[in-house]
From TrEMBL:
Gene3D superfamilies: Molybdopterin biosynthesis MoaE subunit (3.90.1170.40). GO terms for cellular component: molybdopterin synthase complex. The lineage of its organism: Eukaryota, Metazoa, Ecdysozoa, Arthropoda, Crustacea. This is Molybdenum cofactor synthesis protein 2B. Keywords: Cytoplasm, Molybdenum cofactor biosynthesis, Transferase. GO terms for molecular function: molybdopterin synthase activity. GO terms for biological process: Mo-molybdopterin cofactor biosynthetic process. Pfam families: MoaE (PF02391). SUPFAM superfamilies: Molybdopterin synthase subunit MoaE (SSF54690). InterPro entries: MoaE_sf, MOCS2B_euk, Mopterin_biosynth_MoaE.
């Protein structure tokens, strides 16, 4: 089953663990992206995310389908936080379960790269001087078209 979520609430790894755990799977793989306190020598206070929700969810579902076409997966979870995300808190959690580790590890890497490349989510860094910058993912393809 695929679990897609965009939320303003904090992300919870234990909730996602419950969603992807299965008695017939020996592997649970995760990527957790958190807000760090610096970027290129500037002190970051927080991140702020916005999304085109309907399109983002469709793109996330397409990524799940592509991952399932490439690997044998039981469950997939793609959860992304919107709104304000303080330092040390999770912005995104990508998780997958499979019978063996190779499938879920490779799928998680593919999925986080896919989110960065094709899902319409925007990030603004807010610095300690009160200023902020909108950031574009280097991998992003849709904003260049």
């Amino acid at each position: 089953m695929d679990h897609i979520k965009l939320t303003n609430e904090p992300l919870c790894i234990s909730t996602i663990n419950e969603l992807i755990t299965s008695e017939d799977c020996g592997a649970l793989s995760y990527f957790v992206g958190t807000t760090r306190n610096h970027f290129q020598g500037r002190h970051v206070l927080r991140l702020e995310y916005e999304a085109y929700n309907e399109m983002a969810e469709k793109e996330m579902m397409k990524l799940c389908k592509q991952a399932r076409n490439n690997w044998s997966l039981k469950h997939v979870a793609l959860h992304h936080r919107l709104g304000v995300v303080p330092v040390k808190e999770a912005s995104v959690i990508v998780a997958a379960s499979s019978e063996h580790r190779k499938e879920s590890l490779e799928a998680v890497s593919f999925l986080i790269d896919g989110i960065k490349t094709s899902v319409p989510i925007w990030k603004k860094e807010i610095y300690d001087d009160g200023k902020g910058d909108w950031k574009e993912n280097k991998e992003c393809t849709w904003s260049k078209s």
